[in-house]
């Protein structure tokens, strides 16, 4: 490869190079220790230097230097890993450069010309592969080493590389870690000891940062049951981030079959770059923190101070600017953040240039003042450009917007329990009017049973509590603002923990979840979805219909067609929007609660925020997201509840118990009036709130759980606890408050627990965990959860087909499945357009998830002896593939592949031998070709000759018994002559014992050599008995086949697995 010209002073250099070619302007050199005389101490020392040091001239075994006759300075311009590669560069120089150099008079002009030409070549070659890297020259050097050491397919894209140590026991091996699209690779060479490691990202079970006495900080990788530790990184956090991104990218692309069409930097696995991965990670973190739509990407970041008027001080933080949002997050512990949609901005002013400040004016007579912005003019112009605002020195709003303080009136009517904002019974908006609200909720129940007369004090107390909550929020709105640009601080969280007023719950859910922005940027979208999904019939719609009447059946809102129809429309519209998820159980329960406090369209966007942003991968066939969070929950139990872990070493019990907690946000286990308080915290703090509450529940029941004798008793303890959780601030009287399933008389005698107190305790005891830590734990446990599911899937698939294919043992089926899955992944590694990806259907059973096209099927079949030696193997593979592909989609699954291995051979042999003479001859040819190149080839040929002769004699005897007068000798002799004619000249003999000496070429015979079709009849038992009569044939067909060795031999991959598949 061409190198950026670098000056080299040979006079002071070590004699590590040998000159092989030279002329007046160029020198081709070979590094000592390579090629001829590569052995000895010199070779070992040079090899060690090449591994340890990051220098092109000390890595590549060949190089070309540029020189001028009157100078002692040389310039390195090219290097090569092989002599053929460097020779091509040398020939190009002689052909294109040498003649041109003769026209220059000055040596400086010659050197300048050569350097410019080489830089031009580098720029031309690096447009695609190296154009996005920080240091293309060093990256090209690393790419050379990567290709030389690991011999992976040329399409494999190297992303980045790092110097580090790999620990083999207690001994570190200093070398280089290479991170590519599909593989983690490491290479070390120290004094003759070579260490080479290649791990596929989809084989990793754990990836985490660790530390111990020996290793201060290291990266732990668990793959294929082996632990690998890498340490001594210059930038460990950066390295770990890239590794996390690549592992996650591989999991999503290979297991979930994501195509990343909305992420251009990841849409092509051949163009993945370090910068693209880092940008993708930043965008994901940005969207998750501010709850922004998935279309938003972080464009610019500015450090600044934000004036907080209610606290009267400047808080230090960062301004994050995307295409449609201006966000700010403090970094001084004040926990203040604000989100300003560009649609709300009406002006940008620069009042004080000395303090590098600017003021952003938003609707509602509010303004935010940022100061000490390094490039405040650029920021102001960027905001104006996104908002379409012209730079006016005197903005119309500047005189009005002087502070953040504004007065808001809620206008909450007397004791209005706002279940659903159901105000207009329109087509797309479920709306109970206020009078209809009363019919469904408290007042109707009270009038029917006389509660309004019997419990006047209770009704008044509820009114006062609600009024006090609303007043607290009014004060908060007046100080911090209301709506999308409201300041969120510690005080906001304190109000959330105490409980949200019924009248404000829907509004605040929309705000904190980010659903308000989704709905504002997609007007009319929900109505279109409802129209398009109306009347559709799918598996999702059938499941929705079955679950409609199971959604809060005790609640009056869903005891009429109005509530049921709204629920149906929301769920069906979402299934139509996101067919990958469609519909999953628990979505109906969540949506029912959302409809109680939000309008129908708002409930839809809240569901979108939950399923696609706040609880990713929760609502699919494998509920991976919920299982990951359960693994995080177990980890937190070990960290915070040590007393419980000492008593219960197996924490899997809590995973089975807590699954419904995570899927339904405690709605399925708590009374509805208590569960909504949990949902309040969830929309503000995300999954962290659910984890905290789960820990608080276990901590509250610690004594009972420790003293329990078995899991059933522990479950009973938790169920009784949930039945006694109440909400003293709920507008409903306790006699009509809905309790969870399983409530009993014994539970009512237990001590009641108020939900507000429980949530407050959860925040006080476990609120110190950070959202960033939770996300890190999620990523760390996701790999293990997915690999565990894959392992369970393999066991289910293998056990499901083991009874059908008794010829294979369970261990052999395990090996076959691993081989089949590996080949499936290989078809997806370097393309997004393989048939496997294009025809992927996530609704299919696990058995159908991994499939092979014809190319991959042929490759696997060709690796299985004896078919790889057949002269007509391609036609045979195609015929077998079409036979197995029953639905004609060009793909076969694992069951069909096992069918091909387990039954195809027997069927082929059986049907061939009920036919004609030509088929018998073809059978003999096939046997001869199978043995070509075998160590026992000669013995096998003699055995086949004896088998065919025996079969011919049996056929002749059979015919004579049927027709004694028929002269058949000539037919048999003719056939035997044809069989002898299958062999090369001079190889035929008259007797079976001397017939068919070892041929040197495969047999070929055309059908025209058979003069006529004579119908014969051979029983399969006769053929089998004849073959079994020859021990050498029996040994050949029973010989175990090492399929992985054949895979490695063909250099498709260098995976460390050792499959011992006995076929």
Automatic annotation (TrEMBL):
* Compartment(s) where it occurs, according to its Swiss-Prot or TrEMBL record: Cytoplasm, Cytosol
Domain EF-hand intervals: 872-907
Q: Name one GO molecular function term.
A: calcium ion binding
State any GO BP term from the record. glomerular filtration
- Kindly state which keywords UniProt assigns to this record, in alphabetical order: Calcium, Cytoplasm, GTPase activation, Metal-binding, Repeat
Write down the Gene3D superfamilies for this protein, in alphabetical order: EF-hand, Pleckstrin-homology domain (PH domain)/Phosphotyrosine-binding domain (PTB), putative rabgap domain of human tbc1 domain family member 14 like domains, Ypt/Rab-GAP domain of gyp1p, domain 1, Ypt/Rab-GAP domain of gyp1p, domain 3
Which GO CC annotations does the UniProt entry carry?
cytosol
Q: Which InterPro entries match?
A: EF-hand-dom_pair (IPR011992), EF_Hand_1_Ca_BS (IPR018247), EF_hand_dom (IPR002048), GRAM (IPR004182), PH-like_dom_sf (IPR011993), Rab-GAP-TBC_dom (IPR000195), Rab-GAP_TBC_sf (IPR035969)
Task: Tell me if rRNA-binding is a UniProt keyword of this record.
Answer: no
Mention any Pfam family matching this sequence.
Answer: GRAM
Q: Does the keyword Repeat apply?
A: yes
Per UniProt, residues of the Rab-GAP TBC domain are 499-686
The molecule here is called TBC1 domain family member 8B
Q: What is the source species?
A: Esox lucius
